[in-house]
Specification:
Elements lengths: L1 E4 L4 E7 L13 E7 L1 H11 L4 E7 L1 H13 L3 E6 L5 E7 L5 E4 L8 H15 L4 E5 L10 H11 L3 E5 L2 H8 L5 E2 L3 H8 L6 H14 L4 E4 L5 E5 L2 E7 L10 H11 L4 H15 L18 E4 L13
Parallel strand pairs: 1-4, 1-8, 2-6, 4-5, 8-9, 9-10
Antiparallel strand pairs: 2-3, 6-7, 11-12, 12-13, 13-14
Helix pairs in contact: 1-8, 3-4, 4-5, 6-7, 8-9
Protein name: 1-phosphofructokinase
Family: Belongs to the carbohydrate kinase PfkB family.
Keywords: ATP-binding, Kinase, Nucleotide-binding, Transferase
Length: 314
């Protein structure tokens, strides 16, 4: 079982339009609403892969009720903590060439009592969980140290933690030694305080995060593939993608693929790459099912191309 924690979940409404013209009235060709938030997406991908998952999250207002209902309809167990604020709604506008414009709401204010209720729910759900995946930004009211406290409590309960966040929250949590952290290239560059121009730069930055406390680093490099640096070695993986339809949730699908494949080593990286590549070819934030995966298109190697320039420097 994989438990996901999403402190700032959302309803994600996606519109697909022929083109985005500022100041014009646009007509969407596709309009869909999905459960949103990074941890929620991980749960959706885990469930699509055929594994049990529990989505732990704060829920408030009619938006929270709808979010929980959508998750249950997708076969996901929901451990909701009631809050006085309202769950946020995010908007994405997708164009045919893969360009995505996003408007993310700030999210509700979380009280001290609600914060403690979330942490206590993590502790109680840690028993029997293979992984606790803690993902996304923190809503108003939660200090940057909140994830560090979460990792500490999960470890005391005997659970392994995968963490996908950034900035001060990531740096604070590293001191509690999460088993896996999953930054993208920008987040990796921010964490070490310098730009990344090559895959070798990304490897050095990942090594530094391990020095700070992370036991493994799974880094998403966008079109440049993914890196894994853990106790078994350093690996690079990528997959050719014909058409990018939407990159919403692709990193979350990658993390789910990594965890369901054991969360360590080159085979887990290959699963992460396959899940991420499949996700970008699906509409909105749809998570890939096993039939969407193309493992034969994935290449992984321990011979990392350190001098290769990143197509999207961070």
């Amino acid at each position: 079982m994989i438990v996901t924690v999403t402190p700032n979940p959302s309803l994600d409404r996606t519109y697909e339009v022929p083109s985005l013209a500022r100041g014009e009235v646009l007509r969407a060709t596709v309009d869909r609403v999905d459960p949103g938030g990074k941890g929620v997406n991980v749960s959706r991908a885990v469930e699509a892969a055929g594994h049990r998952t529990v989505a732990l999250l704060p829920l408030g207002g009619p938006e929270g009720v709808l979010l929980a209902r959508l998750l249950v309809q997708q076969g996901i167990e929901v451990a909701g903590v009631e809050i006085s604020g309202r769950t946020r709604v995010n908007i994405s506008v997708a164009e045919p060439d893969g360009t995505l414009t996003k408007i993310n709401a700030a999210g509700p204010q979380i009280s001290v009592a609600e914060s403690e209720a979330l942490l206590e729910s993590v502790r109680t759900h840690s028993a029997g969980a293979c992984w606790i995946a803690c993902c996304g930004s923190l809503p108003r009211g939660l200090a940057p140290s909140w994830y560090a406290e979460l990792v500490s409590r999960a470890h005391r309960a005997g659970a392994k933690v995968a963490l996908d966040t950034s900035g001060p929250s990531l740096l604070a949590a590293l001191r509690q030694c999460p088993e896996v952290v999953k930054p993208n290239a920008e987040e990796l560059a921010e964490a070490v305080g310098r730009p990344l121009a090559t895959i070798g730069d990304a490897v050095k930055a990942a090594d530094e995060l391990r020095t700070m406390g992370a036991r493994a680093v799974l880094a998403s490099l966008g079109a440049d593939g993914q890196l894994l640096v853990d106790d078994t070695g350093t690996y690079y993986g990528h997959a050719e993608v014909d058409t990018v339809r939407s990159n919403v949730g692709a990193g979350d699908a990658s993390l789910a693929g990594f965890l369901v494949a054991g969360g360590a080593g080159e085979a887990a990286l290959a699963s992460a790459v396959a899940h991420g590549a499949a996700a970008v070819q699906l509409p909105g934030s749809v998570m890939p099912a096993p039939t969407d995966l193309k493992p034969s298109a994935v290449l992984t190697t321990a011979d990392v191309p350190l001098d290769r320039l990143l197509k999207e420097p961070a």
